[in-house]
């Protein structure tokens, strides 16, 4: 049997880092990604399509999204199995309750494993999050009650992998890899982690299209062949329609804004899609840099998202301290203030000097 697995699409994501127009375009890209997934299922004549949760954002979904999902899953002409996660949890106001699904869609609605026989001797056990947080582990204490091949579909956190996943991930429905085998399950198909992982007895597909910078989406859909002995073969596919890049530009020695713009243009010249540029380094005091000044330097991109990293202003504090000026007195006074630690002293000096020079830009606090 061949199954196509995906998870963590997060339709209707807010995309807070993007402006209104770009955010809307990114949400459309997620819909286009789902169309890629359903097309792939048809092309490979999969026996079923599986989603391991976080299909959409519970707090933001629209009626239009509900109808889009209904039509898209109807179009695959194969069984579709949905296991709600912590972002698309199954509750009274859930999108899942508002759609009159076609008969090929099977929704797991209980917060414990429930069986569905895919074919004789092959059972898929699925479970749902029924709240946005504090869902207990589905595998803990569970044991299959039948022979044949037993598979699981759910949204949860394999605890040993938490440190290797994206920051901010909470342990929803936690489990350990050893619990999969102990429960009598041959393999588990799991969502929640956006970084793909192919373990011996469980598979995280990862997110199929990047949601934020630093995510390595691109092979987030898995075509799985299930053998009669319960082992699986996995073939990963790229269905992403978006390109999101993270670039760092070092500005050491830069003396004016034009040089900054030139370096950013060079750094993103060969890229497409959306690029976040992090500016770092030590710049001359005369540089008046604000991230907004860089947003339009690469019109070939869908968007350039600039931000300040560790940027320092290269003041010669020893020379300034010798000046018989207001600036010199300010430097001497701050240096003599024993109540300040070094990091605070540095921030006070740079902020004050920038203000005295009439250049109180965003660089002042770095």
TrEMBL record:
<dbReference type="Pfam" id="PF00149">
    <property type="entry name" value="Metallophos"/>
</dbReference>
<dbReference type="InterPro" id="IPR050535">
    <property type="entry name" value="DNA_Repair-Maintenance_Comp"/>
</dbReference>
<protein>
    <submittedName>
        <fullName>DNA repair exonuclease SbcCD nuclease subunit</fullName>
    </submittedName>
</protein>
<keyword id="KW-0540">Nuclease</keyword>
<feature type="domain" description="Calcineurin-like phosphoesterase">
    <location>
        <begin position="1"/>
        <end position="195"/>
    </location>
</feature>
<dbReference type="GO" id="GO:0004527">
    <property type="term" value="F:exonuclease activity"/>
</dbReference>
<dbReference type="InterPro" id="IPR004843">
    <property type="entry name" value="Calcineurin-like_PHP"/>
</dbReference>
<keyword id="KW-0378">Hydrolase</keyword>
<keyword id="KW-0269">Exonuclease</keyword>
<dbReference type="InterPro" id="IPR029052">
    <property type="entry name" value="Metallo-depent_PP-like"/>
</dbReference>
């Amino acid at each position: 049997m061949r199954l196509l697995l995906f998870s963590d699409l997060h339709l209707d994501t807010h995309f807070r880092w993007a402006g209104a127009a770009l955010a809307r375009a990114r949400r459309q890209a997620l819909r286009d990604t789902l169309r890629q997934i359903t097309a792939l299922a048809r092309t490979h004549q999969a026996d079923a399509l599986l989603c391991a949760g976080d299909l959409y954002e519970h707090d933001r979904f629209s009626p239009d999204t509900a109808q889009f999902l209904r039509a898209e899953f109807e179009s695959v002409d194969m069984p579709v199995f949905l296991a709600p996660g912590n972002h698309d949890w199954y509750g009274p106001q859930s999108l899942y309750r508002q759609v009159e699904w076609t008969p090929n869609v099977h929704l797991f609605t209980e917060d414990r494993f429930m069986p569905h026989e895919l074919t004789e001797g092959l059972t898929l056990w699925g479970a749902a999050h029924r709240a946005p947080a504090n869902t207990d582990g589905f595998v803990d204490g569970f044991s299959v009650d039948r022979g044949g091949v037993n598979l699981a579909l759910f949204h949860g956190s394999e605890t040993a992998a938490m440190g290797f996943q994206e920051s901010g991930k909470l342990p929803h429905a936690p489990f350990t890899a050893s619990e999969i085998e102990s429960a009598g399950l041959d393999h588990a198909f799991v969502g929640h982690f956006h970084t793909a992982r192919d373990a011996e007895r469980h598979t995280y597909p990862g997110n199929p299209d990047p949601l934020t910078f630093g995510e390595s989406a691109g092979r987030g859909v898995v075509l799985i062949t299930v053998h009669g002995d319960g082992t699986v073969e996995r073939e990963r596919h790229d269905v992403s329609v978006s390109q999101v890049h993270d670039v760092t530009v070092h500005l050491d020695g830069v003396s004016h804004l034009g040089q900054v713009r030139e370096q950013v243009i060079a750094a993103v010249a060969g890229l497409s899609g959306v690029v976040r540029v992090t500016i770092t380094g030590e710049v001359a005091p005369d540089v008046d840099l604000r991230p907004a000044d860089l947003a339009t330097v690469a019109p070939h991109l869908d968007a350039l998202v600039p931000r300040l990293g560790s940027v320092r202003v290269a003041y010669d504090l020893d020379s300034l301290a010798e000046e018989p000026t207001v600036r010199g007195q300010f430097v001497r006074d701050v240096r003599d203030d024993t109540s300040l630690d070094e990091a605070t002293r540095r921030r006070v000096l740079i902020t004050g000097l920038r203000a005295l020079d009439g250049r109180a830009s965003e660089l002042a606090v770095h």
